[in-house]
Design goal:
Six copies of one chain form a homohexamer.
Chain A: E1 2-4, H1 19-25, H2 27-30, H3 35-47, H4 53-80, H5 86-93, H6 96-103, H7 107-112, H8 118-121, H9 148-171, H10 176-205, E2 229-231, E3 247-248, E4 255-259
């Protein structure tokens, strides 16, 4: 069950409106690695968690925090899209791309430069659950497999890709208010990377999961002669210079060896076509329909 | 540039047709964590790579291998969907779910149980680039950000989720031929998890990337007072028992401390609505249209 | 900012597992009119609201409640997918479709009937943010236009379609625990239909919006001679018997009259094709490429 | 069965080409609330209608009219994308953004500003069944539930959101020809809002449906103690000031009362993980694979 | 502008309900090659056509006919989902899969076998604009490029894939009423294949388009030394035995020759990474943020 | 099984960076008719092929070549997005739209004009598997039906639409390096159109498939009285002037005749609504829920 306080976790107020930047900022709200993705991923991982309570509660903590991050970004985007107070207006007047939306006279000029037209036509100056090209958020961005190691690895990824995108966006604006909020989100992503790395370590220490994941599958059932072989399919030898091509494996269970010219062993021909499905057969055949 | 040899990397021949299992196996061909996803992810990471050559070549090696895995699964699925040779036919005759497709008399009975109808109507007994519920593969399953640490973390995830799904599918069949092929894929996923973990270690040793990722963003620009704080938003104290809530951070750059009752600091109200977009205002206003 | 309590708003415990019904129940979790849709719709309407505070707070109240409904359904689905306690197990043993998942021996039989295979392969017995055919939830199911009348009308619809689907699902099970939870959701949908109808009435009384929506567009700018005309394009006269074809309009601003044989007035031909885009022209033309 | 007359329902001819506006206008052709959505929604509602004939015929009337609206918008967009006659050309010459497409010399300049590149590359100056960010139309925008009250409420919404978007687009252009056509569409949306409101009234008068929808579900089966309770989950008391929080309910069947501090009653823990699906368990367990 | 007659172009009445077959039949209503795809494709091709009038009118003829085909399939599916008259009921009683829906007692049994659950929960026994796995129709199935040869080739394909799917569905039922309607659709697909082949021939005779398409691009601008070379990238020589590997080209403008061992000529390395985007560079570099 | 050589099939190096053109070029990489579509289509057609070996090998040849085309375009796009060498830099300095990305000072100006923001935020100056509006590639762009005639017709279409788009893109740039690469791709599309046309001819000569496709369905089962009738649904007689309305059919099996006023024969009413699904009935009925 959830409750809400009418405060934002951190300030989300730009110094002046910037509808073009609002479009870009949508990426970390509704994009593949945006806040909606981590919010929904963590909530579903928590709701589906059958592991120890401390993991479940930790997942729900961060899931609940992320709802608040979605809120901060939605608020920031709505403000980037709205008319500014008078003194900001004068400052903006010298910037034709921003100023025009306030006068109301040539609002179309804004759209013509890099604004998302749906910010005017569809949401009426509000944020949208979509990314920077207007593609809607989809739940296929989320992961909740029931296996915590597989999922926490996803979570480290999400916090890395997310922090990467926010730092790029930090460099794409010089609005102090926007930069202030982004520096908050970047810091939280630093924490969350550390948080998931700690959780992975703890999973291993608790004896619940380890590499190769899932660790509860009996490894003697896999085709052991290829489980620690680096296979080189591309030309050149540079790839053999890395730790991935030889030496002790990271899972501590084998030594990796390179295979420089891997070959195939399976045949690839198919059998006969089913006549009643009208696939093209190897030889002409008589016409056939079901009774 | 790519070349092809008319062999499969490993055998992909079921002992007998099983259209219902063919539907399930689609998940690891065309699903979120299926072979098409890793094939496309690695190829695009390689093509976009601006890092050292050994990384680029390694990425292309595995990307090229994955095309062959897509091929193996496509072949296996097509065979699971096709008529069997005569002796298999007799054996199958005792299984009404499988036998019926061969006689041609009551092909609809198969579809009525758990087969994907598109395997008959659309692909004519062929594999499809879709998952186990028939949802088409989408490129939003792929990641190639230009930052190798962020991407390699995704790759470890992909090999973990992928191996997890293949082991589950291993338990969902008792066909020796299918199990044989899956044990090959499981072994390769073991190798590939190790491969990406080794690559992450090497990235750090080479001084190219580290936690927090991206490491080239100056950390003094982030809001440092929240960068190592665990915030508890959900009820209960269990989550404070983990290594994520206190102690040295995994990045070696801070010590984590818990915040048991996090509060908000930002206000959340928006400004006035733009009259010409007809959003609902705080007060009734006069009707307005552009000149 | 959001907080969470480790309780569900209402009980969500089935009397026994039923993976086939779990698939169906996904519709009201992650379908077009499921709880994720209303949760996201209301949250974004609230975050984008520039109207009076009482509307904004009311929208956020219900948006926050809906996160809890998503939680209840996710929990119920996870439980429908899991092993039951011993006494339920014995009862279920007589039902081959349900019993098999517990023994673990022939888990594939379940999938072969009506279960969603992703509930085993992808989520490991957890709920997914998808609908009853496995189609992922997409943010295009949400609406937040900035105009409260347009949006509240959507909300009444959502609570109507949602309640309709839950009552249908109520009839598709005889599990007392499931029916108990559904009767709670049905009651909340009753409240929420009333809630949005009251809000629409209040919007009109507050003079903020009315029919035709948006009411702030000057109606004298519309083509008035067709603004209150019922046009009959299909054969037969039955459609002229309704209140929509004649009499006072619902907006109180006109009288509707029927047009029995509407005709067109605009021409539909296009101009010449742009030669450099290689569209097919009316006459053969010489070959052309940019310099 | 359908027939076509080579006329448009109304004029659809811009005074001059404007490829940037053509992109925006796509929203009301192929967007969530565009003409394709209402066309397909009404046609499917009509084809699936099992209610009285007058409703069915009325739905088909408007569904058939909407095909003609799709036609008008497609024609308008194609014309906005094409070369203009000579006198318009001269006028446009002073506008570099528009003029360039005609000379053919620097067609890329257009695309660089706000044009949809697919209008050149994909459709060759034709309209596309997509929205203003190029996202394709999807049938998930449509609704046909079999319950006419639930569906008519959707239809009122569609005509409200649609009219809202067209009025916004009306303000984003100053081309008299475009404004003329939009004023026709706005008027029809006025009519259609009235039409669906009249139909809802008639449904109730005919005794077929009423609030709460669906009205044929026995209301004594819902959890009556929460069916008329307004629950406040967000901070602040402003939301209690509305008609939704107290007083007679709109359905005439209850009186609404507020609940200021709603609490949960259900527990949220899950049972044990199924070992063969390799979800993370509460305690370490032995490795397991199917025989 | 469009009109409607309350008749179907042909009978669409099954002998008895069959909800499982209804799901399959959705493929040719709302699938990639279903009737909605050709309806929308032809209508948009017609609306965007700038070629001679006879082509435009022909495209609109068939586009209008296809609306009627969508109608026939929607009606058939709705009837396959509904209760049958009494005498059919008795006949169906011996078929447990079909009989159960009529008694109303155990409607869930139907869904558990191969029915689409949305046919009950979402559409209430109505057809949906989706395919046989429930995936919604998307406008990316349509094509209208402005080049009639490219588009007519698509149309021949659509009528071929469509006819292929309908003949497969013909073999998947033994209901005389369904087979009767399908035989009508198969015949129309025969006509329409001939129609588009004739139109292609006429385009060439009229001198408007020919191979290679688009024919108005000056062929001397293409890299002529590879324009008629068959390149063999896969192992084995079987592919050289076809008319595609040698001899006169179909366009009458060149002679094809095989290249048995094609080689590459371009280098594939990229330049330096942009520091402010935090891509991984070739060498460690100093930390950087925008001012 | 696949192998890779570290060369591109042809040069892919622009004379100077052009991020705006990079966005447009994405269309033929990841759009409906882009190289990923033909790569995946041909690979799946090959893997699913049960016809003669020469067809299977030919399909795999071209499928393998297309992986290399995806590679060329991905490389070109990455280079269009990257900093240029010094001398190009000076040249570009006079073009404010291009020059700004190199200095790093005002990178946002680029995005504001026509660049895809994801090229900076998401891919870090790399190509993406998406089209020119940023819509992700989806496998619903592919076709592999098992019937070679139906599929080869699709392939001719794909090479026509693809070549059309590349020639349009050729006209949208004046960069010699880009034009050089495009002229290579255009030439290969010329070859591939010829290749598939030759393959269609050979299929017919081999007696495997012919018009109407699929030719193995017994034509006497189709409704013969409408199999060669041109039906005119739209106004005007122009459409009767084409070869499609009269004369010998292209399949050589019938003579086409026009039907100037086609009429319907089927009735379109549905039966009674199922009470427990709460669809709106023809008459008021008593409330009903399952026991």
């Amino acid at each position: 069950m959830f409750y809400r306080k009418s405060r934002l976790q951190y300030h989300a107020r730009p110094d002046q409106p910037d509808p073009v930047y609002a479009r870009k900022l949508q990426e970390v709200l509704g994009g593949q690695w945006g806040e909606i993705s981590v919010m929904m991923t963590y909530l579903f991982q928590g709701w589906n968690c059958r592991g120890p309570q401390k993991y479940r509660d930790m997942i729900m903590d961060i899931g609940t925090e992320e709802i608040g991050h979605v809120e901060m970004l939605a608020t920031m985007i709505a403000r980037l899209l709205e008319s500014s107070p008078v003194d900001a207006q004068e400052k903006a007047a010298s910037n034709p791309a921003v100023g025009s939306i306030m006068g109301g006279a040539r609002i179309e000029d804004i759209l013509a430069s890099g604004m998302n037209p749906q910010h005017a036509i569809v949401s009426g100056s509000g944020a949208m659950p979509a990314d920077s090209v207007g593609y809607p958020w989809t739940s296929r961005y989320t992961v909740a497999s029931g296996n915590l190691l597989a999922d926490f690895r996803f979570n480290v990824t999400a916090e890395s890709q997310g922090r990467l995108q926010v730092t790029r966006l930090y460099n794409l604006t010089d609005d102090p208010g926007v930069k202030d909020m982004l520096s908050f989100l970047i810091a939280r992503d630093t924490m969350h990377q550390n948080q998931w790395l700690a959780a992975i370590k703890e999973l291993e220490e608790d004896g619940l999961e380890m590499t190769p994941c899932p660790s509860n599958f009996p490894q003697d059932l896999e085709k052991s002669n290829v489980a620690y072989k680096y296979m080189k399919f591309a030309q050149g030898d540079a790839s053999l210079d890395g730790g991935w091509a030889k030496g002790a494996a990271a899972d501590g269970k084998g030594r990796i060896k390179p295979v420089e010219s891997p070959d195939g062993v399976g045949d690839d021909d198919l059998g006969l076509a089913e006549p009643m499905l009208y696939g093209t057969p190897k030889m002409p055949m008589k016409k056939l329909a079901a009774e």
